[in-house]
Design brief:
Elements: H1 14-25, H2 30-34, E1 37-43, E2 51-52, H3 53-63, E3 69-80, E4 83-95, E5 101-114, E6 120-126
Parallel strand pairs: 1-6
Antiparallel strand pairs: 1-2, 3-4, 4-5, 5-6
């Protein structure tokens, strides 16, 4: 593993973490984005299909080819010691199959954990925490 894991990612509060995540995500740099997740992180980018490990990382790298642009805002947060539960309204634009930009969004349910250096990292990333709560594009 490279020395990248030694880089301090972000040690602010959950609001600052989300802003930093959005900024990092919008760079399209899969390695930088993955540093915002714990090694054991679970991502449920498609309802009912949790991804972990290399499969999660490979899926992210493939998705980034669509040049996604993310915006997000915390609707509700609950923080206790080193764990946070977030409800996040988000929207995203991607390159569609027809060459036009497509929009979609939802209400995410995310769990973050704070590591020994005080950095928040995604433990569970579920953009469609409840698919019935999708935000109209």
């Amino acid at each position: 593993m490279s020395g990248k894991s030694d880089v301090i990612v972000h040690a602010g509060g959950v609001e600052e973490h989300l802003a930093f995540y959005v900024q990092t995500f919008n760079t399209g740099d899969a390695d930088a984005i993955n540093r915002l997740y714990s090694e054991e992180a679970v991502s449920v980018w498609e309802p009912g299909k949790p991804l972990t490990g290399e499969e999660r990382k490979d899926n992210l790298a493939e998705f980034l080819k669509l040049r996604p642009a993310l915006t997000a805002k915390i609707r509700e947060s609950h923080v206790t010691d080193d764990t946070a539960l977030l409800s996040v309204d988000w929207k995203m634009e991607v390159d569609g199959e027809n060459g036009k930009r497509e929009s979609f969004g939802g209400l995410a349910t995310d769990i973050l954990s704070r590591d020994s250096r005080g950095e928040w990292r995604y433990a569970i990333d579920a953009p469609y925490g409840d698919p019935r709560n999708e935000i109209p594009g």
